[in-house]
């Protein structure tokens, strides 16, 4: 399947809807959209323009690009400064309007009140208003944007401007926090993906050529210099060294490698130069399988996520018709005030908005997976987070899991007339040619110059 990146995709619910609509499109054999990495894997006979139209129907601001082009893009989709400035201006206008509400209301036709509150309303709610308008034209009426727009425009109509602004403002603050959480979770997952090898030193007729790891085939020979990451799984056919396996196993102690021993992609060569004969292509390497688990973790949805998506489709129309009944039935049957009951109907629309449910539950799972990835814990999917609630006993590997495997000198106990300084110096000299964690801790504790004997 070909991969694309969706830029500016920040809504879990929208991602699920894009995936669903693409699967319904004729000529699409398979479609998987990973919200965690904003990567769309697609097997289709359709041109890219047809795919772009489907995406734009759900999220007009989302751009689709070739995944290979987007891989080097280090910029975050979420513009924190821009969003913070917009929210801050709206908050200032809102509180100015509240503080001077009586004075603003006493201006001719309450124009002062409109001049303060309407800009705040548009700054905080323009995205909601525009999405609601587009969705109505596409025949998609019953969603959270429609509820928010109906409630707030109704509040403006009955001259309850502070309420209209407050609803949009609190929603926008929630969206800002959501965007920030998504951005941080994506960053933590991307930082884990940085262990992927970038290049390989391929040996061709005795000469070295730097190529991408995916261009290397089984049987090729690659050279791994000290400090470089091993690009592919293989066997050492020349040289000896020690490799750092912590990215794969969590074990901090270097692993000695001699001729004939297996090395895995993602290990870091620490000392000597190794010549490695490739035994597996990049797609089948250990590091690729680990990274696939991380990248596709949010694709395995928990039952709660599936239920909320289905629930929201039926819930929203019920709320709309319920609010309509609240607005019309009491005034018609009980001769009550239309203004009071319309206001109550608008309150019902606002408090019943499903966006909190629809957004918070997928975002909660996504944040959990991202937070765990930042701490080096790989979770296969949201469904496994639910399974963890039933765990009674946990068995841990200690080194690199419960401990960091980083040693330090806590006490020096000299014997037979040696001073602490002299004993530490001698120990540092003895360990100066070793990079074992205990040896490194002794060298670090001795701050003087080490002269090997």
TrEMBL record:
The keyword Protein transport does not apply. GO terms for cellular component: membrane. Keywords: ATP-binding, Membrane, Nucleotide-binding, Transmembrane, Transmembrane helix. InterPro entries: ATPase_P-typ_cyto_dom_N, ATPase_P-typ_P_site, ATPase_P-typ_TM_dom_sf, ATPase_P-typ_transduc_dom_A_sf, ATPase_P-type_domA, Cation_Transport_ATPase_IB, HAD_sf, HMA_dom. It is found in: Membrane. The keyword Transmembrane applies. CDD domains: HMA. PROSITE patterns: ATPASE_E1_E2, HMA_2. Coiled coil: none annotated. One of its GO terms (molecular function) is ATP binding. The chain crosses the membrane at residues 84-102, 114-132, 315-334, 340-366. Residues 1-63 form the HMA domain. Its main location: membrane. It is a multi-pass membrane protein. Belongs to the cation transport ATPase (P-type) (TC 3.A.3) family. Type IB subfamily. This is HMA domain-containing protein. It comes from marine metagenome.
């Amino acid at each position: 399947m070909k991969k694309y990146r969706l830029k500016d995709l920040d809504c879990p619910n929208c991602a699920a809807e894009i995936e669903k609509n693409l699967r319904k499109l004729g000529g699409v054999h398979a479609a998987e959209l990973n919200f965690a990495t904003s990567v769309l894997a697609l097997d289709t006979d359709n041109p890219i323009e047809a795919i772009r139209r489907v995406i734009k129907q759900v999220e007009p601001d989302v751009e689709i690009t070739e995944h290979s082009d987007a891989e080097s893009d280090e910029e975050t989709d979420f513009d924190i400064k821009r969003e913070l400035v917009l929210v801050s201006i709206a908050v200032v206008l809102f509180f100015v309007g509240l503080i001077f509400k009586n004075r603003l209301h006493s201006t001719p036709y309450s124009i002062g009140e409109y001049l303060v509150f309407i800009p705040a309303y548009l700054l905080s709610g323009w995205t909601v208003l525009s999405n609601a308008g587009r969705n109505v034209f596409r025949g998609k009426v019953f969603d959270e944007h429609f509820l928010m727009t109906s409630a707030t425009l109704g509040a403006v109509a009955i001259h309850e401007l502070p309420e209209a602004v407050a609803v949009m403002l609190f929603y926008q603050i929630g969206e800002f926090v959501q965007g920030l959480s998504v951005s941080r979770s994506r960053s933590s997952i991307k930082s884990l993906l940085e262990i992927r090898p970038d290049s390989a030193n391929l040996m061709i007729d005795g000469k070295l050529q730097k190529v991408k790891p995916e261009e290397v085939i089984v049987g090729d020979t690659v050279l791994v210099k000290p400090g470089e990451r091993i690009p592919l799984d293989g066997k050492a056919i020349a040289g000896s060294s020690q490799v750092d396996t912590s990215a794969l196993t969590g074990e901090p102690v270097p692993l000695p490698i001699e001729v004939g021993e297996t090395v895995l992609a993602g290990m870091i060569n620490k000392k000597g130069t190794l010549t490695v004969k490739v035994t597996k292509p990049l797609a089948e390497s250990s590091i690729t399988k680990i990274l696939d688990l991380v990248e596709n973790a949010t694709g395995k949805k928990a039952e709660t996520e599936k239920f909320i998506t289905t629930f929201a489709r039926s819930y929203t129309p019920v709320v709309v018709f319920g609010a309509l009944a609240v607005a019309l039935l009491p005034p018609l049957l009980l001769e009550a005030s239309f203004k009071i009951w319309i206001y109550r109907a608008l309150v019902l629309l606002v408090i019943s908005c499903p966006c909190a449910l629809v957004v918070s539950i997928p975002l909660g799972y996504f944040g959990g997976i991202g937070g765990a990835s930042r701490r080096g814990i790989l979770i296969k999917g949201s469904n496994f987070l639910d399974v963890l609630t039933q765990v009674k006993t946990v068995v841990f590997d200690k080194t690199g899991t419960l401990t960091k495997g980083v040693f330090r000198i806590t006490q020096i106990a000299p014997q037979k007339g040696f001073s602490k300084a002299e004993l530490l110096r001698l120990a540092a000299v003895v360990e100066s040619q070793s990079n074992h964690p205990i040896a490194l801790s002794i060298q670090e504790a001795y701050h003087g110059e080490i002269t090997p004997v």
